[in-house]
Design a protein that fits this description.
- 3% of the residues lie in helices and 57% in strands.
- By secondary structure, the chain is mainly beta.
- The chain has a ten-stranded antiparallel beta barrel.
- The longest helix is centred in the first third of the chain and has 5 residues.
């Protein structure tokens, strides 16, 4: 919460309702940077970008929402093998504020602040009757730290001539992700594709006659669905590189063009 807001809290105590205009910086849609094949060793460490850059600038899909997204978002994962074909994954994402797109220039300016995400996922790679062909699945949960801004205009009793105050803060919505990724391994090359759905955090742009309360400034949002396809190449005995292309097919709150993800993966253990 900004110091400016703290300074007027005594005034707000007598003002229960008002008008709010807000905007939030939220994570860019992306997919797990994994082919869906079972882990070859007990531990993997993956470092990459779930979105390198936007080939097309995101556009407003739902005008009632006000969000901006980083064009470049990092995704790192620590993967631990469970049994022969299961995985437990620890995830960190970081969306760089310096690359953010503001789809509507009239949105409230957020200021500085990266997008941070922390989470875990579990996965299982199902074998098939075709050698090298596996069906990877994943269930993911993330908790986010997202910067936002609110312009609050008091309209109730006790305003005392006050006009508009500006409140900056961070919200912590949670998202759920579900994915399926068939993949086919041919020696050092693996080709894969699939679907991944995850909530897209968002913020309602304007509300009239509401209580001043920052608890619901940013919500988890609805599911967005992404199609993706890619290739993974084994560069050395314990090192591989991955590149994929993904496309979000849900235009709410934003409409996206195709995105590119890249990663390097190192294998540890037996």
């Amino acid at each position: 919460m900004s110091l400016r807001l703290l300074a007027v809290l005594p005034v707000l105590a007598g003002c229960l309702t008002g008008n709010v205009q807000r905007s939030a910086r939220v994570p860019h849609p992306g997919v797990p940077l994994s082919s869906g094949q079972p882990l070859p060793t007990t531990v993997e460490l993956s470092a990459g970008l779930s979105n390198v850059t936007d080939l097309m600038a995101p556009q407003v899909g739902n005008a009632s929402q006000a969000v901006e997204v980083p064009g470049t978002e990092m995704r790192d994962e620590l993967r631990i093998r469970l049994g022969q074909r299961g995985t437990l994954n620890v995830i960190y994402e970081n969306g760089f504020a310096s690359t953010s797109h503001k789809p509507d220039p009239t949105q409230a300016p957020i200021g500085s602040g990266d997008v941070h995400g922390y989470g875990t996922s579990i996965g299982y790679s199902f074998p098939t009757s075709t050698p090298g062909l596996s069906i990877g699945t994943t269930v993911e949960t993330m908790v986010w730290s997202l910067p936002y801004v609110e312009y609050q205009t008091c309209t109730g009793e006790g305003c005392s001539g006050m006009t508009t105050i500006i409140a900056h803060g961070r919200a912590n919505p949670m998202t759920l992700g579900l994915g399926i990724s068939p993949s086919y391994r041919m020696g050092a090359i693996t080709v894969f594709g699939g679907l991944f759905g995850r909530n897209h955090p968002t913020a309602i742009r304007k509300e009239m006659g509401v209580r001043f309360n920052d608890e619901d400034s940013v919500t988890s949002g609805q599911f967005n669905l992404l199609f993706h396809a890619g290739i993974e190449l084994e560069l050395a005995d314990r090192l591989s590189a991955l590149i994929l292309i993904h496309q979000d097919v849900i235009a709410d709150p934003l409409r996206y063009g195709p995105g590119i993800g890249i990663a390097l993966t190192g294998c540890i253990g037996k």
